[in-house]
Amino acid sequence: MNVDHDVLRRLSKGDQGALDLGKAAEHLVCADLILAGYRCYLSDQGLSYDLVVDVNGRLVRVQVKATCFPSNMNATGRAERIGYTFHVRRRGKASKGTRLSAEHCDVVALVALDIQAIAYRPLHEVGQCCQLMPPDHVFAGKFKRSPVVPITGLPFSEAIQRIGGSNV
């Protein structure tokens, strides 16, 4: 499915658009999990999680975080480093809600809407902010760094294993 980037830009500009983008991301994650063989349900409004996934009889709560486009993650701006940034622990309008914690969800689904890619991370492994690289990213720096995981390299099955669950 092709994504209209003009529509994404327009929706990312206002409060109502942000709600629509969040809803689109939730539906995208739900479809991804159902097509991967999991039983997945959208949750009701007002709950601290967006989806519930039945993994061998255990209910796993999933919070969805979305971004429209990658941006330059290099704070100094000298060497452009394009990636997706997610403010995982923020909740509520203007980030005024309580900080996202283990009492709210088990897994976070990080969605890049422009390429319809999803990464799944256990909440206990994620800090305040999470930065993921686009698929096929090549690090061009001259210093040694740890391996970079692309946004497409974190499947739900691995997140379940890392929270102590079994795979479907």
From TrEMBL:
| GO MF annotation list | nucleic acid binding
Q: Where is the PD(D/E)XK endonuclease domain?
A: 21-127
Give the superkingdom in one word. Answer: Bacteria
Q: Which Pfam families match?
A: PDDEXK_5
Name this polypeptide is given: PD(D/E)XK endonuclease domain-containing protein
Annotated organism of origin: Methylobacterium oxalidis
